[in-house]
């Protein structure tokens, strides 16, 4: 494959690779950078590509490996090794102290949301949460297994709606 044919093939593949880059990075600018890095590595290693093989798969592999390498490099940059006897790895990105209040508020909200459920949904949900299997809940409550699954599903849906403020919290 000539360099011109190779360049044309890479250009055609850019539309297929961009969504994958965006999925990996979750940021448009980082996705464009990853796409560019992938093409630079592909041009640099053009002689390693075997004619007749799957170019798209080769590029996906380069992109995935480039992303992993960049991620590992970023993590290493933000971490230093404490050479004392304890040998702790300490993340040096920023210092943050938490007192657990956020967790307590979240737990209070979760408990309040569960207590707000109708008993018809709360009982099967709590039994499932405690580790009971669907068939055990159905036997204990003397209802069909499909009803148990439906009530647990509805309970989860209600809780998800009630606790939506915690959706993107870490």
Write up this protein.
- It contains 7 helices and 2 strands; from the N terminus they run αααββαααα.
- A hairpin with a 7-residue loop joins strand 1 (79-81) and strand 2.
- The chain has 2 domains: 3-81, Rna Polymerase Sigma Factor, Chain: A; 101-164, Arc Repressor Mutant, subunit A (Orthogonal Bundle), CATH 1.10.10.10.
- It has helices at 3-25, 28-44, 55-77, 101-115, 119-129, 134-141, 145-162, and strands at 79-81, 89-91.
- It has 170 residues and is mainly alpha-helical.
- The model has no long low-confidence stretch (mean pLDDT 84).
- Helix 1 (3-25) runs antiparallel to helix 2 (28-44).
Gross geometry:
elongated
Order of helices and strands: HHHEEHHHH
> What separation lies between the terminal Cα atoms?
49 Å
CATH C-level label of the largest domain: Mainly Alpha
Kindly report the CATH topology of the largest domain.
Answer: Rna Polymerase Sigma Factor, Chain: A
Number of strands: 2
Structural class: mainly alpha
- Total count of helical runs of at least 4 residues: 7
Key descriptive features of the protein:
two-stranded antiparallel sheet, elongated, 4% strand, mainly alpha, 170 residues, 2 strands, Arc Repressor Mutant, subunit A, Rna Polymerase Sigma Factor, Chain: A
How would you briefly describe this protein structure?
Helix content is 68%, strand content 4%. The protein is mostly helical and 170 residues long.
Could you give the topology of this structure?
Layout: H1 3-25, H2 28-44, H3 55-77, E1 79-81, E2 89-91, H4 101-115, H5 119-129, H6 134-141, H7 145-162
Domain RNA polymerase sigma-70 region: 17-73
Pfam families: Sigma70_r2 (PF04542), Sigma70_r4_2 (PF08281)
GO molecular function, one term: DNA binding
């Amino acid at each position: 494959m000539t360099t011109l044919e190779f360049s044309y093939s890479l250009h055609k593949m850019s539309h297929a690779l961009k969504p994958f880059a965006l999925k990996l990075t979750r940021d448009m600018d980082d996705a464009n950078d990853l796409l560019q890095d992938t093409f630079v590595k592909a041009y640099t290693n053009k002689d390693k590509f075997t004619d007749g093989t799957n170019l798209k798969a080769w590029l996906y592999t380069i992109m995935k490996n480039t992303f992993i390498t960049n991620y590992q490099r970023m993590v290493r940059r933000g971490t230093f090794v404490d050479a004392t006897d304890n040998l702790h790895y300490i993340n040096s990105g920023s210092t943050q102290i938490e007192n657990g209040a956020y967790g307590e508020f979240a737990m209070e909200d979760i408990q309040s949301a569960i207590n707000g459920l109708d008993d018809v949904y709360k009982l099967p949900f709590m039994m499932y949460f405690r580790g009971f299997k669907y068939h055990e809940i159905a036997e204990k409550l003397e209802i069909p297994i499909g009803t148990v699954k439906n009530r647990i599903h509805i309970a989860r849906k209600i809780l998800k709606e009630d606790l939506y403020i915690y959706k993107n919290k870490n």
